[in-house]
UniProtKB/TrEMBL annotation:
Residues 1-20 form the signal peptide. It comes from the Bacteria. This is DUF4292 domain-containing protein. It comes from Spirosoma endophyticum. Keywords: Signal.
Amino acid sequence: MKKQLITLVALVAIPALSFAQTADEIIDKNIAALGGTDKIASVKTLQYNQSMSIMGMEMTGKTTTVVGQSSRTDISAMGQQITQVVDGEKGWMINPMTGGSGAQPIPEDQIKMQKGNTFLIGADLSTARTQKYPVELVGKEKMNDKDVFNLKVTRPEGVANYYVDANTYQLLAMKATVSVQGQSGEVKQQYGNYKTIEGLTLPSTMELNSPAMPGSVTLTLSNVVFNPKIDPTIFAMPK
């Protein structure tokens, strides 16, 4: 009887153990949900339009990216044109709202954060794998009534926690503690409205909360184009 009981307990335990997932397995499924490793790797350049809403103010913009290397965003706000560029380890911006019309270098700590934007939006865990960032499975928890996996990723600019839907394996949210100009704060980002474009399923809306902003920012992406031809001179800082 005792031997039969031990066998029964073992049989019950095996399925439970088989459902336990590792960080690598979760990332595998997240990449599959996006469209697969080959599809992600095939995107070398990227362009998209964006509309932004912050504290009742509406803005529009266009972003041009060389994946993993350079990114330029041009934003129209209140009749002014704002430009922000990251190119390798350098960066610059033009922001008339700060009182200047010329290009100014971006501080090094901001370049580190902005460099993360040179990768495919919503493919952060794929990027973590290709860039060999350390990843740890924190556990499974609830977020907005959904079961999610919490993955801790150690990135060059700091540690970020990514929350993956346990059913769809799509990325739902991210939070990270960052330091900008000597001040530390928590950045939060939520991803939604996933759309499939040329075999890649990526988020088209994001809500961002950052200590560097006066309120939450809602971004909506449109007119996404993969692998457009890009003139590299657009990333050069004007003299």
